[in-house]
Design a protein that fits this description.
The chain is of the alpha/beta class. Helices cover about 40% and strands about 20% of the residues. The protein is built from eleven helices and seven strands. It has helices spanning about 15-20, 25-40, 45-55, 75-80, 90-105, 140-150, 170-180, 200-210, 230-240, 245-250, 255-270, and strands spanning about 60-65, 85-90, 110, 125-130, 150-160, 215-230, 280-290. A seven-stranded mixed beta sheet has the order 3-2-1-4-5-7-6.
């Protein structure tokens, strides 16, 4: 873990209009909730546990998960013995979180809530976190201030987000496969980065957490997301299940083109698979921590 002190890239922090234009509506997240729960949530546990250890989460702590999805961060927190409240603006995501928590008998509650305006009392939680959630929102500065507001003085705020987009292997593999089938398939524009990458620069993340009111801010860049797949179909499902944007990118493709892309992905997965037939696609992750 290291504390970043270099001057932040201000241009990367001040593109609110662009960010708003690239925000998927709540209905789009409802539409992929089942796929997210099936193909994404379970694979987030190892990273979540590592981040929660960095945050010093202890059994009995009051833990708030903001933009929780179906529980990639909050379910591991509850398994560690925390008293969890998971919030998300997608009712379908919240329902699926409830089903998972109930099935495991965990001490976890949930509420539908917009992270830009948390309907919660000040100074309530020992640890407040977000994994691959608040990284996506259009007014991230406001959402971070809300996370700080509801965290007790001396408590910890945790933000987990993607790092350098050029090293996001699953995304680049998906786009490369699509371009084999549809040569003019554009994918995300290089000069208009997706919201996932608005704090890909660790200095920008450090600046945003500090501006939100946190002290003792550190950014850990030593972790990565690992996506384990055994087929092109699994990589397709993970990509489309994790965010509405990829589905929008392939919305105009025919069923035949989609099937052909999956076949190309199959070949790419086999090329990098280990002896068990599993291929691992990694992406760098920034874990930001600060004291309220």
């Amino acid at each position: 873990m290291r504390d970043h002190q270099r001057a932040p890239n201000v241009a990367a922090m001040t593109n609110t209009q662009h960010e708003t234009e690239h925000t998927a509506p709540v209905e789009a997240w409802d539409a992929i909730a089942a796929a997210y729960d099936e193909h994404v949530t379970a694979g987030e546990s190892d990273l979540a546990e590592a981040a929660l250890r960095l945050a010093g989460l202890r059994a009995g702590d009051a833990f708030l998960d903001v933009a929780a999805g179906t529980g990639g961060l909050s379910l591991p927190a509850a398994r560690l013995g925390a008293k969890v409240l998971a919030t998300d603006w997608s009712p379908s995501m919240v329902d699926l979180f409830n089903a998972r928590a109930t099935a495991e008998g965990l001490d976890a509650a949930s509420r539908v809530m917009d992270c830009h305006a948390l309907d919660l009392t000040d100074d309530t939680f020992d640890v407040t976190g977000s994994q691959f959630g608040v990284m996506l929102v259009p007014d991230q500065a406001r959402a971070l201030r809300e996370m700080v507001r509801v965290t007790r003085p001396g408590g910890r705020v945790l933000l987990i987000a993607y790092g350098d987009p050029s090293r996001f292997e699953a995304l680049h593999t998906f786009v490369a496969a699509a371009q084999v089938v549809v040569p003019d398939f554009e994918g995300p524009a290089d000069d208009e980065p997706l919201l996932e990458f608005q704090v890909a620069d660790p200095d920008v993340m450090h600046h945003r957490l500090t501006e939100a009111g946190l002290t003792e801010v550190v950014i850990d860049t030593e972790h990565e997301e690992r996506v384990n797949v055994r087929s092109g179909q699994q990589l397709w499902d993970w990509t489309l299940g994790g965010n509405p944007i990829p589905g929008m990118l392939v919305a105009d493709l025919s069923e035949s083109q989609r099937s052909d892309i999956v076949q190309v992905l199959d070949g790419l997965v086999r090329e990098r698979a280990d002896r068990t037939g599993t291929a691992v696609f990694t992406a760098p992750v920034n874990i930001g921590l600060g004291t309220a």
